[in-house]
Amino acid sequence: MPSFVDDVLDVWAEYQVDDATGEVFDIHLYKLEEGIDPATGHRIPVKGEEITQGEVGKIYIEANPTPHRRYSVQFRWSGSVFVAIGFSNIVIGEVTGTAYDGGKGKQLREDFDDHVASGTTQIPVVDPETGETKNVTYKPNPHNVTPH
């Protein structure tokens, strides 16, 4: 197992976020314990003992369930307090520079729609591995179903 694995810890995190600036403050981290959901009998994460003294060089990752947020915050110990160092959110959409460059996906969709609208049945597609352009035959949708 790589040595860096010991440098990452899942924790229960509680903190405040300034809506105007996005600044994370009033950070409290807790050991992540395992409990049992009485309704289902399934194992669930629960808040354990507060971590009052962190370790330099470790990354603490928020792992508690947060249904109102779509990301987890990462923290480091500054020597005296925990500080937020980043969000581990993966942004996927029509945005350049994301997990899959959504800008490329958006352009591909626009090119496809343009070819369909023009009645073209041969669509040029660039192979991302080789950079080679190949023509792909488009077969019209006989049921007029719109792909999503």
What does this structure look like?
With 148 residues, the chain is mainly β. It folds into 2 domains: 3-87, no CATH class; 102-137, no CATH class. It is 11% helix and 38% strand. The protein has 1 helix and 8 strands. The strands form 2 sheets. A 6-stranded mixed sheet has the order 3-2-1-4-5-6, with no helix packed on it. It is elongated and about 65 Å long. The two termini are 41 Å apart. Residues 88-92 have low confidence and may be disordered.
Q: What is the C-alpha radius of gyration, as a whole number of Å?
A: 24 Å
Which structural class best describes the helix and strand composition?
mainly beta
Range of strand content: 35-45%
Poorly predicted ranges (pLDDT <50, ≥5 residues)?
88-92
The general outline is elongated
Q: Give the ordered list of helices and strands.
A: EEEEEEHEE
**What is the spatial order of strands in the main beta sheet?**
3-2-1-4-5-6
What is the share of helical residues?
10-25%
Counting structural domains, the number is 2
CA-to-CA gap between the ends?
A: 41 Å
Largest sheet, described in full? 6 strands, mixed
**What value does the average pLDDT take?**
76
In DSSP terms, counting alpha (H) and pi (I) runs of 4 or more, how many helices?
1
Q: Count all strands and give the number.
A: 8
